[in-house]
Amino acid sequence: MKEKFVYPVARKDQTIEDDFHGSKIKDVYRWLEDPDAAETQEYVNSQNNISQPFLENCEQWKKINSKLTKLWNYPKYGCPMQYGKYYYFFMNTGLQNQSVMYQQDSLHGESKVFLDPNGLSEDGTVALSQKSFSDDGKFMAYGLSESGSDWIKIRIRDAETGKDFDEVLEKVKFSEISWTKDNKGFFYGRYPDQDGKTDGSETKQNEHQKLYYHLLGQSQAKDVLVVQFPKEPSWRIQSKVSDCGKYLILAIVKDCRDNIIYYADLKPGEEIVSELDVKIIVDKFESDYDYVTNVGSKVYFRTNKNAQNYRIIIIDFENPGEANWETLIPEHEKDVLEWVKCVNEDKLLLCYIRDVKTILQANSLETGKLIRQFDLDIGTIVGTSGKKKYSEIFYNFSSFLNPGTIYHYDFKHPDEPPKVFREIKLNLDGFRREDYAVEQIFYSSKDGTKVPMFIIRKNKNVLEPRPCLLYGYGGFNISMLPTFGITGLMFVDTFDGVLAYPNIRGGGEYGEKWHNGGRLLNKQNVFDDFQCAAEYLINNKYTTKDRLAIQGGSNGGLLVGACINQRPDLFGAAVAQVGVMDMLRFHKFTIGHAWCSDYGNPSEKEHFDNLYKFSPLHNVHTPQNENKEYPSTLILTADHDDRVSPLHSLKFAAALQEAVRDSKHQQNPLLLRVYKKAGHGAGKPTSKRIEEATDILTFMYLSLKMDATSL
User: Does domain 288-425 fall into CATH 2.130.10.120?
Assistant: First the structure.
């Protein structure tokens, strides 16, 4: 692993310089922001020509790939869903690139294929990213994405015949699909035409989304523009037709937190032929409001307004002033209300997070009182289905050692406990959960804050230092809950490794206060929490620093990039996937402007000063001694990632490699791998997921000098 790498030389353009509030900052690799330039493509190829052979020529690559493929090859199921007279469910036989949607006449009836995305491309890169059924269940509007892009094309399928209508709706991204109750059409958001490509490899900003109404059977050219905000280019319009069909609820977002609420009256029987008259309910971006259901003009929302852990409120649209709002279910003192569904006409299904574990219960829609608690082990509900009009619910429970157990409960039979509908079985010889230990510990961060962390390892009497994978995210109010992953299980099973998942600040595990503790000017807390997790694992003999790997994706890629700059001495290896690495220009590409709510806007001096301190691109260093040597680092990105453009990883890799080029203290490799026809992660075909996981485990095998106990 100590061979000296000769990295490609990335041209430095010394003429590119920006003035940030009086600070002159050079951006010598800006040319890498153009994905179509021949020079950029040549650079990408030259990097892949180093990283790909390094990984795939390792004798263990094929063994790891074979073992991963075997482990991945087990049937995976989603929860049954009822729409109209049919039930539907997703199933993957094991190694299919995309899961297949099946249709049944009854819950236990024979199933037939309703939609199989695998037939839409030879390499499995066309994915079903979205679906929405009409109220009567006769039609399904569905969105397909290509090569992992956020862009989708909407088609409509007849539930009876399985055939598609002629029309295809394009220029759609970050949109809901919401049918009117007359089943004649739906609302969706689309972006205006733009110059150049819209295939996910472009970097243009996404602005001026507008809401349209599509009438079934007509071409997109005839769609009616119903809502627009021309003076607010960054606003995104999330629309939902109310359960009664009389309101179009509009949740407007401009970044990744807080929304405002408008609504429009929908008159049954009236055609939608022009812009709707919208009325405002909430006019300030200061809290989140999620529509749950309504009874007449009384509309139920989940909100963190004056409730950091969220509560359920009722707003009467006929008397909507805040002074008239009612609280149905108050904020819990400690538990965070993660989501709410209305089921069985008058019940609310509520999911809470309690110390990073899922709690599920049903409450009365009328009184808010608890009706029943659902018994769960330590883990997470990863899927649910249920609607206001139906009495049945399904939920899929998963944990670090459980790939999924689907439960069925019918409110028509309240005295009967939930029944196991389907257990998902692993393809791992001799697998027994009792052979593994799962513990949750709380460690102290730099400022004394107690941070929870799950640790998974083999169940042994003697604890000895082993290879360890520390995975983190820490942002955007997203909670890292205990769920199953094949790659992690293989790390423990095959390499006798230790997995660690710290619930660092910036996430939503403890509500808005936890999120606020790791965003904007508090972002350094996220990196401190992660580094203190590493120190805990080392000090408590789970691992040693040269056997500790860190990994994160997207915002977690930023986490990894910042931490190897700040504490290179603490880690043996690092894997940064699709990371945000240029914190001075992230807001200029695709949907990056929406991330200012977590990162801050560099056009404001206070936030520039903060961002510049930790921006991975701007804090690379040349190692002056062995303690400053970077750990073995693998930077991963994809050419169709239009969420976090690959330019971030390209520029960071160029800066890293240039900084260490002549350093005698840098022996560990710093590699960049760019996947083709792939995106940020959603919809990634199984074959590409296995390939990436093989690359990551091979890199860790080489970096941490792991012994493969059962390859």
Answer: yes
